[in-house]
Amino acid sequence: MKKTTIVYIFFLLHVLTTPMFLQAQDKATITVTIKSLKATSTDACNGKMDFYAKIHIGEKVKNFPVREGNNLQELNWRFVATTDKDVITPTIEIWDDDDSFCGGGDDAVSISGSINKVRKTLNTSESQNLEYSSIGTSSRNGSEIGQITYSISIVPIKTKTQLLSQQSWKKIRVETATATTLSIWKPSLPPPPGISACKRDDDYAFSFKGHYEKNEGPSKCTATAPQVIATGNWVFKSNETQIQLTTTESHTPILYKVAKLDETTLWLIIEDTYEGITTYTRITYGH
After folding, report:
1. Residue 26 has what DSSP assignment?
2. pTM
3. Hey, which bits of 158-253 come out as E strands?
């Protein structure tokens, strides 16, 4: 067998065992709000606009039903969606609904020059709260011209690494459960003030670059104890559903399941099996 054939077989095996699609992580939450719509021309059929709208955020679209009137204030048509893109171009379309008595064809309402669309290209890596107003100056389709006010908000979504490392954590409580009572967590350590003050203020820090440190905090249980209790490294595993800690407190790496991680709460679960019985320990950290 030729070497090229062997290489091809290994390549084929790699392709067959590699996921075809990897889900990209959302980078930001986008909120587009149409605040008001005002007709600056008179509808040719009945004198009133029958406004409806479409908002596009990437490939996601939301339709808004017909509202009749030439001056719709405090409209607040809102579309919220997430995106995994670094740059996004939200787009708003405005239409005038014409029924059969008006010829049946819906007319585009010009809100930006002669077109019925407004769009803004924005970076999703920074927080933004933007207010806009736009008015049509001419029309390609009939005489429908209008004015729109709208806003776009961008809130970047923090990665798990950012959430974990943005500030140190303090241990709040420790609970246990078994495989048969996994939904019933029982305290294995009493909550404060049952935990001594010298333990309640210990800091657990996960740096952005993967360094780990357990620190005594402001108070020590023993005056002569070192300020830094343990150091080591941390790394996410299994698509960021687990954390592996390698520290000076343990001879072997410790693997935790990340049950919850947000701005204020971290749940780490570790399991231990002894004589066929698995016990789960959940540690809750906060700021």
Report:
1. P
2. 0.69
3. 170-178, 186-187, 203-206, 211-215, 228-237, 242-247
Contact between residue 133 and residue 160 where contact means Cβ atoms under 8 Å apart: no
Residue 129 structure tokens: 């709260």
Q: What is the pLDDT of residues 97-131, one digit of tens each?
A: 876 566 667 889 999 988 999 999 999 999 999 99
Q: Which helix (H) or strand (E) holds 163?
A: helix 160-165
Instruction: Give every CB contact of residue 47 below 8 A, 6+ residues apart in sequence.
Output: 70
**Domains of the chain and any CATH numbers:** 28-156 (2.60.40.150), 161-286 (2.40.128)
Number of helices (H), then strands (E), in the chain: 3, 21
- Name the phi and psi angles at 161, rounded to 5: -65, -40
Q: What is the DSSP letter of 115?
A: B
Return d(Cα 269, Cα 143) in angstroms, integer. Answer: 65
Place of tokens 């333990």: 199
Residue 19 pLDDT exceeds 60: no
Nearest-angstrom CA–CA distance, 90 and 80 = 11
Exposure b/e, 20-40, CB count within 10 A at least 16 = b: eeeeeeebbbbbbbbbbbbbe
User: CA 100 to CA 69: how far, in whole Å?
Assistant: 19
